[in-house]
Amino acid sequence: MNELDNANIAGLRGSLDELDQEIIRSIARRLELVDQIAQQKASGSAGIRDPRRERDVLERVEAAARERGISAVLARHIFSEIIAHSVTRQAAFLSPSSAADREVAVSYQGAPHSYSDLAAQKYLGAMGVRGRFIGRRTFQEAVKELLAGSVDLAFLPIENTTAGSINQVYDLLQESDLAIVGEEMWKVDDCLASTEEVPLASIQRVLAHPQGFEQCSAFLASLPAAQRVICFDASEAIRSVAELRDPTQAAIGPPEAAAAHGLHVLRRGIANQTENFTRFVALARTPQRFDPRIPCKTSLIIGTRHERGALLRCLAVLSDNGLSLTKLESRPRPGRPWEYMFFIDFEGNVENERVARALDDLRVAALYVKVLGTYPAKATAPEPESAELRDAGATSTEPADAQTAPPPSPPTKAPALRSKQYKLADRASRQEDTVVRVGNLLIGDSSFVVMAGPCSVESQSQIQSTARHVREQGAHILRGGVFKPRTSPYAFQGLGYSGLDLLAAAGKASGMPVITEVMSQEQVRPVAEKADILQIGARNMQNFPLLREVGRVNRPVLLKRGLSSTIEEWLAAAEYILAQGNGQVILCERGIRTFESATRNTLDLSAVVVLKERTHLPVVVDPSHGTGKRAYVAPMAWAARACGAHGLLIEVHPEPDKAMSDGDQSLTFPEFASLMQGLGAVPAPTAERR
Ligand code: PEP
Ligand code: MN
User: Fold this and answer.
1) Considering only Cβ atoms within 10 Å of each terminal Cβ, which end of the chain, N or C, has fewer?
2) What distance in angstroms lies between residue 622's CA and the mean position of ligand 1's atoms?
3) What tens digit of pLDDT does each residue of 16-34 get?
4) Which residues approach ligand 1 with their CB closer than 6 A?
5) Residue 192 CB partners (closer than 8 Å, separation 6+)
6) Test site for ligand 1: of 622, 650, 651, 664, most ligand atoms within 8 A of the Cβ
């Protein structure tokens, strides 16, 4: 090439640069118009998306491209991205919390210029929000930043269209109490890059993340001589090659990272699958609300009931309410072998009445429901022939949800006569009995479950010997209070968390699940880590914040009847737990205050039969607190079984006279043995007599 050629090329490149600036200016002008439309939409009721208009735009630009001999595919690709960006930007107008003058701190897993970093930038950029991005080595560390409050969002990949779900992130969602507030899609488009523009044949080593090697295996087969070096992530591969400054070394990674490190892209589009997308979720400490006009998705975790067709029934709730499922994933429950949780995504906003109704139905159909969040669905440009487009037509001024979902079919069961105060607990919403699973035990079916142990955990030897004894006599679950609600502040208050460890150890040693009381909200999560059932004591039956908190954890709850509470009040208290998504509630009759003073309380056994009529929840009886006197406990326990209770809660102590609480009503070991023997002689009511 002579100098004249060089000058010509420089001139042409200058013109190209000018044109690029012009393209950017045009996009900026287009976005200004988009913002003006968004302002108009903000004052009306029309939905953000207009699928018919989006299709028309794409068809017009494709036609224009064809006329000029440009690839229509390229035109569609570019404009799909521009439309997606515009839709997100319009949605941001309706979300006051994403004010553009704020800086949002985001943690992610990986290094700068990794796909997570790029996708996080795209996510905030589309909303016109400034970001500060903090890369961490692991997903856990990224989430830790969020929990510590040092960032506003954690931005994590949740699935890839080629590799599938990212299990670690699903498990984090299950264990933590974080909310999904957004999603983003990123097209994975790996390239091979090096420090100089060299022929591919001269490459001697290729650096990449293991997934990079896997996803580009077909291309790499054309470089058989090149040695492979595994890196922690793609951006580390790129950075290493940039630092080595050796043109025989190349890295596989995002072209954006290559550009940032001054590398030359030797080949683009080297992945086996060219259509490879990763979906990311933005997590926050608290859920965010979104305007119902924004097309949203909602994500849930559900635990199914222990009955045939349980999952199918949950999915039917969504389709019966006209909601379309976009994802279903099952994951094992951490620490609970052979138990599974289901992750569900569907189109809809929890602010929408239809979704609220579906969630109510789901709380009856499932045993545990955790709403992970409602968030704007990332707009992927619709395909010309999609059903969504065919159906859209004249409905484009309807609220967003109505555009994409068919009208609901009539509900299968008429919930007309449900109690207003406790619709989920009401028998009218569920004919079948609820069965609560605790390890391998079922509470609420035809079995009779005995929970026994001391009122308070007092020492290792006391709880260990009691556990051994009650287990030998046929008890199923070990009880023991560690946070004690005592009438006088001077009385023994319980051993607290050290007592919980003693209880958990005794449960393990004797092979029994354990139940213990929680008295305050802060105790709920730490106690749920070690106890199998959380007890809400009589004095806390109407401690509503406490009820809500146990409603959010995935642990069975034993709800005792309040000292002077009616059955209706008791069921309304249970409803607080159910309404939060935890359907694993066991009711416990423990006696009420009456004028009678011969017993500590009056054990209301008629409550058992009343409850069986009014609710589907299991009912157990505590004759220890119900009578307050050792001698009365066994006969009342037998009576409880005879009238159809699903189980008992009994206080037992090695030396009741020395007990630090409730000695008068605690049974000795021999007394407990004879209670259990007598129980065998009591016929439980048959299904018809129940
Ligand atoms: C207990 O079970 O030890 C207890 C304190 O029960 P209640 O809440 O029924 O008094
Ligand atoms: Mn007690």
Assistant:
1) N
2) 9
3) 999 999 999 999 999 899 8
4) 455, 481, 485, 537-539, 560, 590, 625
5) 200, 203, 206, 216, 219, 250, 251, 252, 265, 266, 267, 270
6) 622
